[in-house]
Amino acid sequence: MPAIPVNLCLSARDITDVRVRPGGVWVSGVLSEPVVNGVSTRLVMWSVADPTVVVDLLIDPAPTTGRGLSGGVHVWDHDGTRIFVTTKTDGVVTVMLTADQPSGLKRLPFPANRSWSTPAFDYMNRSLFVVADWQELWGCTVDSGDAWVAHAAADGFAMDAAAGVEGMCLTWSRPHMPWTQSTIHPEPVTAGVSVQQPRFNPDGTSFGYIEDSNGFANVRILADQLIDHDVVIDDDAEHGGPTWGPGQRSWCFNSDGTKVAYTRNEQGYGSVWVYDRETQERTFVGRGVHGCLSWEGNILAALRSGARTPQQVVVYDMSNVAEPQRTVLVKPADDAWFTEEVDAELVEPSLHTAESGDVFVPYRLYRAATPNYGLIVWVHGGPTDQWNITFRPRLTYWLSRGWSICVVDHRGTTGHGREFAQALEGHWGDYDAVDTAAVIAQVQRTFGYRPGRTVLMGGSAGGLTALNAISIDPSLVSAAVLSYPVVDLAELMRGDDPFETHYMPALIGASDADDPMLWSRSPLSRAHRLAQVRILVFHGDQDHSVPLVHSERLREVVAAAGGHVQLEVMPGEGHGFKDTLNVIREYSLTEEFLTR
After folding, report:
1. What beta strand segments (E) does 87-167 contain?
2. DSSP secondary-structure letter at 505?
3. Are 268 and 261 in contact (CB under 8 A)?
4. Are 27 and 167 part of one and the same domain?
5. Which of 156, 242, 341, 442 has the most other CB atoms within 10 Å of its CB?
6. H or E element at residue 128
7. What is the pLDDT of residues 133-190, one digit of tens each?
8. Contact call for residues 505 and 512 (beta carbons, < 8 A)
9. Which residue blocks in 423-574 are alpha helix, DSSP H?
10. What are phi and psi of 42, to 5 degrees?
11. 461-472 and 431-447 helices, crossing angle to 10°
12. 206 in any annotated domain
C-alpha cells in the first residue's frame, strides 16, 4: 500500500477533559478542531444513548484545553444544572443549563489575566476552587460572588484543586519536582514521598490521592464512614504518570465512594480496573491506556488509546461491575485511520529488556509490516517521562515507510516505580546515554538491524541522551534526527524556566553553572565523535525552554571537528512545533535526509 500521507499525521480533531454529567445520561468534553486561522475549541456534551446527539455548551469565550489524556478545564455541580469552565480570555465562567441546553452565562470574579485550571466544586454546592498560574489556589462562593486566595505557594507550585472545606491542592517547593517530593495542601510534606491527584467522591464523604511511599504510585483512600482505616491499592504497577501539567485523572471514585476506578501502567501498556472498598476485590474493566476517568451512577467514562487505537471517548456500563460493557461514544480521529489499508500499517509493539551494567532497561520494538529500511531508535523527552503505548501517528508514518522503531525506557523513565525513575538523579547525561547505547547494541544483535541503517531520534532531553549515546560508540548508528535538543548543560543551568531550572542541579549532579562536570556531560565536549555521524536538527527561534543557541553551538563545534550538522530553524516556533507548514517541512526534510 502507499505510505501514510503526512496530512493524516497532522493535528486533527482532539478531545480532552471528558466528564460524566451527574445523572449518567450525558458525557461532556472539550473538542478542538483545526480551522483556517488556527484551532476552534468548544465544550460539548454527547448523549450516552445516542452519541449523534451533540449539544454545544460553550463556544465563546473559548474554553481552555487539556493536555493529552488529561483535563482540568470544567466541572459540573452536583445537580448537573451548572458547569464551571476555565476559558482562554475570560477567566472562569458558569454555564447554566435548562432542559439539557445552555441557558445563561456568568463570569465568576476571578482575574481574567491569569491562567486558570482544575476547577473543583464542593459537595455542599456552594464553593468553587481553582488554581491560578500553577501558584495560587483560589476559592469563590459562586452565588454571592466573593473570591479569595486560599493558598499561595510562596517558593513553589500549586496544581490540581480539590474541594475541601477551605480548599486543597497538590503543592511542592523548590528544588523539588512533583514526582520527587510533594504533598496535598494543607498537609505537611513527607520526605521522599510524591503525591498527586487529590479528589473527593461527589458527596464529599470519601477522599483519596495517589502516592508512592511503597515504591509505586498507587491510590490511597483515607479512612471514612465506609472503611475505618486508610487503604492503599498496593500494586507493582503505577496508577498515575508524572505531573507535567494539571488535570491528570487516572483514577476516580464512583458516586457513593464504595468503589474506585484506576488505571495500571503495564510496561507502557495500560488497563483500567475497579477496586471494591467493601469486599477488597479488584475487577478488570478494559485494555488500553485510559485518562480522564469519570464515574457517575452506572456510567464510567474515559479517553482511551492504544498502539492501534486512535483516541476515542468510551463509556463503560458498570451496572454489573463483574461484566462491564464498553461502548465507543466518539471517534474524533480522521476516518482514514479506520480503513483496511491504513490498519495494515498499525503495529503493536513487543516488550523487551536490555542489560546495561547491573540494570535491566525496558524497551518496546515496533516492527514494520514491510521492513524496507532499518531501525529508528527513539528517545523520549523529559527526561522524567515515558512514551506509553498510545496512538502516535508520527510512529505510524515511519513504520509505513519500512522503518522499525525502538522506544527506549532508560533510567529516569516513569512507569517502572520510584526507584527506577529516581535512578537518574545526579546522572543525567550519563546513565540515560549508557542505557540507550546498550539497548541499540542488543536490538541490533538480537534482531539483525545493521548500524549503517540505524538512526537515533529524540527531542529536548531526548536529544541530549541521543547525542551522548552516539558519543559512547559512534559506530552504532549512521545518523541522528533531533528536535530542540539540550546540548549545553551549563547554559541550561543558567536558564530561567520557572518550572524546571531549579531542578537541574539535582538532576545533573552539578553544584552551579561553573561546575566542570557540566562540560563533560554536554555533547559539545564530544564533537570529534559526533562528527562521525550525520545529524539533522530542528529548532524553533522562539524556544525559551531550550533556546536556539544550543543547536547553534552544536553546529559550530561539530563543524570545527570536521563533521556537519544540518540545522533547520523553525520561525515563530517554541518548544514543540505547532504551525502546520513547519510540521510538514519537518517531515519532508527528515525524509529527504534519511533517504540520502
Report:
1. 92-98, 101-107, 116-121, 127-132, 136-141, 147-152, 156-162
2. I
3. no
4. yes
5. 242
6. strand 127-132
7. 999 999 999 988 789 999 999 889 999 999 988 899 999 999 999 999 999 999 999 9
8. yes
9. 431-447, 461-472, 489-493, 504, 517-521, 527-530, 549-560
10. -150, 155
11. 60
12. yes
Q: What is the CATH number of the domain that holds 285?
A: 2.130.10.10
Range of the domain at 464: 349-595
- One domain for residues 109 and 193: yes
Q: In one letter, which amino acid is 426?
A: G
> Cβ atoms within 10 A of the Cβ of 62, count?
19
Of 305, 337, 369, the domain-final residue: 337
Is residue 3 assigned to a domain?
no
In 10 A of CB 229, how many CB atoms?
8
Of the candidates 49, 55, 37, 68, the one whose C-alpha atom is nearest the C-alpha of residue 95 is 55
Which distant-in-sequence residues (6+ apart) come within 8 Å of 326 by Cβ? 286, 314, 315, 316, 317
Instruction: For residue 96, count other CB atoms closer than 10 A to its CB.
Output: 14
Residue whose entry in the numeric block shows the C-alpha cell 534519511? 594
CATH code of 558's domain:
3.40.50.1820
| Residue range 62-91, pLDDT digits in tens | 999 988 899 999 999 999 999 999 999 999
CB contact set of 314 (below 8 Å; sequence gap of 6+): 286, 290, 301, 302, 303, 304, 326, 327, 328, 329
476516518: which residue's cell?
335
Closest alpha carbon to 292 in 47, 66, 62: 66
C-alpha to C-alpha distance for 511 and 97, rounded to whole angstroms: 56
Residues near 516 by beta carbon (within 8 Å), at least 6 away in sequence: none
Q: Which amino acid is at 297?
A: G
CA distance 433 to 458: 12
Measured CA to CA, the distance from residue 71 to residue 311 in angstroms comes to 14
List, in sequence order, every residue forming a beta bridge with 23; answer none if it has no partner.
none
- The number of distinct structural domains making up the chain is 2
> Beta strand pairing status for 454-459 and 479-483?
parallel
Within 13 A of 143's CA, how many CA atoms are on the CB side?
4
Are 331 and 382 found together in one domain? no
pTM of the predicted model, to two decimals?
A: 0.95
For residue 410, give every residue at least 6 positions away whose Cβ sits within 8 Å of its Cβ, in sequence order, or none: 361, 379, 383, 424, 431, 432, 433, 435, 436, 439, 465
Question: For residue 480, which of 396, 409, 563, 376 has the smallest C-alpha distance?
Answer: 376
